[in-house]
From TrEMBL:
Reactions accelerated catalytically: (2S,3R)-3-hydroxybutane-1,2,3-tricarboxylate = pyruvate + succinate
Membrane-spanning intervals of the chain: none
Pfam families reported in the protein's UniProt record: PEP_mutase
CDD domains listed in its UniProt record: ICL_PEPM
Protein name: Uncharacterized protein
Originating species: Exophiala xenobiotica
Domain of life of the native organism: Eukaryota
Alphabetized Gene3D superfamilies for the sequence: Phosphoenolpyruvate-binding domains
Gene Ontology molecular function: methylisocitrate lyase activity
Species classification: Eukaryota, Fungi, Dikarya, Ascomycota, Pezizomycotina
Length: 292
């Protein structure tokens, strides 16, 4: 388990569909993060305002996790999508989908992206009910899925309440603490101090273009984080590149003016074409030999 390696920080690029996951795997990352915002935008074409359903999120997580089961995937599970029994169903679905870890947050069910203003939170007790439901489901299913407690309380309720929620969630059985939307090093210091004696791994969400405190994996490790996720890492260049390609085509009528060096075969190879052809050839050869 990567969490057990003492001098390591787990770096997870945010992926949201098959090709972004394939490219991250080809780049050699040891873990992936399925972004909820990316899932919502790519699956249903809607902003991250709690519109993607538990089923849509689970199916996307299952597809990404299945591309290479040896590479662990952390998946956004939002609020768990309802009351405790809904959370239990969500966690069970993620376990069956092959997800290695998931995070649950303390926003209301009609949530929004963690880096947007105007977030509403449930009570601390309701949040802990979600965590307990996840932990109990894991126990019942004999799973080792990592439960990550996320709080969005920093902006609206303050640092002390946010840390109080996370410590209570860890006491309830969560494995990792995730304080969303950190903007100051003082907040990192307080978070680290709160979990020093517990030895709880900490996760950091680095969202480029947001107000999040900017840091590299090395800096995050030095500050005491065990996991760092880059949720928008694939989304931002996708948005920019596709926008530019469409603008060029619209203005000039020439699709080759935008990066003509990329060939269809390059993309097919990134998505496993050679492996698929080799497999097809192997089984076809076996079938021919069996017919002789």
């Amino acid at each position: 388990m990567l969490l057990a390696e003492p001098d390591r920080i787990i770096v997870c690029p945010g992926v949201y569909d098959g090709i972004s996951a394939r490219l991250a795997l080809r780049a050699g990352f040891d873990a992936l993060y399925m972004t909820g915002a990316g899932t919502s935008m790519s699956r249903i074409g809607m902003a991250d305002l709690g519109l993607a359903t538990a089923t849509e999120m689970k199916e996307n997580a299952e597809m990404i996790s299945g591309l290479d089961p040896s590479i662990p995937v952390i998946a956004d599970a939002d609020t768990g999508y309802g009351a405790a029994i809904n959370v239990a169903r969500t966690v069970a679905g993620y376990i069956r989908a092959g997800v290695a870890g998931l995070h649950l947050e303390d926003q209301v069910v009609t949530k929004r992206c963690g880096h947007l203003a105007g977030k509403e939170l449930v009570s601390k007790e309701e949040y802990l009910t979600r965590i307990r439901a996840a932990v109990k489901t894991r126990e019942r299913m004999g799973s080792d899925i990592v439960i990550i407690a996320r709080t969005d309380a920093l902006a609206s309720l303050g640092l002390d309440e946010a840390i109080s929620r996370l410590t209570a969630a860890v006491d309830a059985g969560a494995d990792v603490a995730f304080l969303e939307a950190i903007t100051k090093r003082e907040e990192v210091k307080a978070l680290k101090e709160a979990f020093k004696e517990r030895g709880t791994p900490l996760m950091y969400g680095m969202v480029q273009g947001s107000k999040a405190l900017k840091m590299t994996p090395a800096e995050a490790k030095d500050l005491g984080f065990k996991i760092i996720i880059y949720a928008a890492l694939c989304l931002a260049p996708m948005y920019m590149a596709i926008t530019q390609a469409l603008e060029v085509l619209k203005a000039s009528g020439d699709c080759e003016k935008y990066d003509p060096e990329v060939k269809p075969h390059d993309m097919f190879d990134a998505c496993g074409m050679q492996e698929l052809l080799s497999f097809d050839l192997e089984v076809s050869s076996v079938a021919r030999k069996g017919a002789l």
